[in-house]
Amino acid sequence: ATGWKMNGGLRLACNEERWTEVKRQATTAKSFGLEMPLLTPKEAQHLWPLMEIDDVVGAAFLPTDGQANPSDITMALARGARMHGATICEDTEVLRIEVEAGVIKAVVTVAPDGSEGRIECEKVVVCGGQWTRALCATVGVNVPLVPVEHQYVITEQFTPEVPRNLPTLRDPDRLTYYKEEVGGLVMGGYEPNPIPWAVAGIPRPFQFQLLESDFDHFAPIMELAIGRVPELANTGIRTLINGPESFTPDGNFILGEAPELKNFYVGAGFNAFGIAAGGGAGQALAEWVHDGQPPYDLWVVDIRRFGRPHTDTEWVRTRTLEAYGKHYTMAWPFEEHHSGRPARTSPLYDRLLARGAVFGEKLGWERPNWFASAALGEADHDVYTYERQNWFAAVGREHAACRDAAVLIDQTSFAKFALKGPDALTALDWICSNNVRRPVGSLTYTQMLNDQGGIEADLTVARVADDEFYIVTGTGFASHDFDWIRRNIPSGANAQLFDVTSAYSVLTLMGPASRSILSTVTAADLSNEAFPFGTFQT
Ligand SMILES: Cc1cc2nc3c(=O)[nH]c(=O)nc-3n(C[C@H](O)[C@H](O)[C@H](O)COP(=O)(O)OP(=O)(O)OC[C@H]3O[C@@H](n4cnc5c(N)ncnc54)[C@H](O)[C@@H]3O)c2cc1C
Predict the structure, then answer these.
(1) CA atoms within 13 A on the CB side of 511
(2) Which of 19, 85, 97, 183 is 20 to 30 A from 261 via CA?
(3) Mind listing the pLDDT tens digit of every residue in the chain (538 residues)?
(4) ipTM of this complex > 0.95?
């Protein structure tokens, strides 16, 4: 038994833009085969009579949503695992993971009586909650998560009692969520000013413990909630739970095989929805461990989506606190983070900024997204909207310039690798779908495919010497593509892969006038005969 009750879930919209967001969520739900009808405020209130609806524009109802009991779920999963042959060692701490020459050998444990154990294994899966970062760091694996305090109140019983089948309620414009609990309510929220926990490291011992309730910090959330559920003001608070939970810099959890260590898997950083997501995440992770590849596209939660800035715990904490504060804020199209910037810049950053560049950020890199024209009175920042973006005209000008003349783009943030060694050609020829067995000076655009023929990487390969290739790929795929290439170099091949991203800048000159523009700064012959498509020159 898991305590599951399918009482449905309501999501409110209190302004027109949120209403657009909710309607889009309903469309997304439908695409997954889930009915999520849209309701008028009155219809929503009929389902949730405790709430005021003066400010509500509309609501969406997911009838298949519900509530479950976390400890019941845990016990049920443990029982199922035992029935299928798993051994569960309770009160047993993993002290360290033994790795020899990049190969996992064993997990060393300590029992409560102090006796050590050693479990030999080929694969390790770490699902250690907020402890995951420190444990994985001992074997060189980076898991960017930090603990943050998260609170909810449990009220006394309402009079009359809250019906047991009351749907769960999310009220993002008031940063709060609600569910029925023994005739009262649980109400929690995502404060804009979250409090990080255990900045100097998680104290020992610390397990199955809560933190001290912080009523002052919760007061603004309580005030927002009373505006929605006035009866909260007349109902006693049974307790204010404060628990540390692991949160991540982009608000998504972290799954998959670590790029740093073969056969080492992670499932952590659940951002206060680990109970809701646990079933699906667990199943996907189990299949991933079994098959050595994700069962479907899991890029948004893939551990390989992170990169260099995520190795810096302070940067991770800063960005994570921003993501926590945005849990319920509008998820705008093209929204950028503002914290921890600038982290990585190209040598042209200051000049581009002075010329009106509006930057976006990817894996810590500042990238000019578009240029605001002061002459046209354009604001030099993004104005978020579900309607036409404020950069529409500016990007249109860039398109026209590229088609009619040329554009120069700073793409320094691109990830760059060097593959060197006597077997570099054989290795790359095996990994790439296009033919890279071409003369020195060739430039090849190619995919890298997995066993199913699916695309794992999409990049450009330059043959710079008989035994050396220069590989350029997308900024966000730095960790993924490096990992994919390295792990697919045939065993025994003498070819080494290096990340040379910081060593080079990238400027891209595109458009029909490119050759004539470039010829003003070089004496080299840039004619099509001397410098054809698919070649490079140094
Ligand atoms: C106040 C609050 C409210 C929440 N509300 C919700 C909600 O409404 N819905 C929802 O879905 N989620 C909610 N969550 C989040 C949810 O509880 C977590 O996401 C979930 O418990 C995370 O599960 P986990 O297994 O990843 O980590 P954990 O539950 O932290 O488990 C990790 C385990 O690993 C063990 N461990 C760590 N290191 C070692 C080691 N070296 N050796 C052996 N064992 C080790 C720890 O002791 C721990 O038992 C809430 C969290 C908080 C704090």
Answers:
(1) 18
(2) 85
(3) 899 999 999 999 999 999 999 999 999 999 999 999 999 999 999 999 999 999 999 999 999 999 999 999 999 999 999 999 999 999 999 999 999 999 999 999 999 999 999 999 999 999 999 999 999 999 999 999 999 999 999 999 999 999 999 999 999 999 999 999 999 999 999 999 999 999 999 999 888 899 999 999 999 999 999 999 999 999 999 999 999 999 999 999 999 999 999 999 999 999 999 999 999 999 999 999 999 999 999 999 999 999 999 999 999 999 999 999 999 999 999 999 999 999 999 999 999 999 999 999 999 999 999 999 999 999 999 999 999 999 999 999 999 999 999 999 999 999 999 999 999 999 999 999 999 999 999 999 999 999 999 999 999 999 999 999 999 999 999 999 999 999 999 999 999 999 999 999 999 999 999 999 999 999 999 999 999 999 999 9
(4) yes
Question: Which one of 90, 119, 245 would you pick to mutate in the ligand 1 pocket, going by the greatest count of ligand atoms within 8 A of its CB?
Answer: 245
273 lines ligand 1 (CB under 6 A): yes
- 395's tokens: 């990007």
Please name the residue ranges forming H helices in 450-509.
478-488
Strand ranges (DSSP E) for 127-275? 146-155, 168-171, 176-181, 184-189, 237-247, 254-257, 264-268
Contacts of 521 (CB under 8 A, 6+ apart): none
Structure tokens at 519: 């010829």
Domains in the chain, please, with CATH? 9-68+147-247 (3.30.9.10), 415-504 (3.30.70.1400)
Determine if ligand 1 sits within 6 Å of the CB of residue 306.
Answer: no
Taking alpha carbons only, the member of 301, 192, 196, 315 closest to residue 252 is 301
Q: Quick check: CB of 119 below 6 Å from ligand 1?
A: no
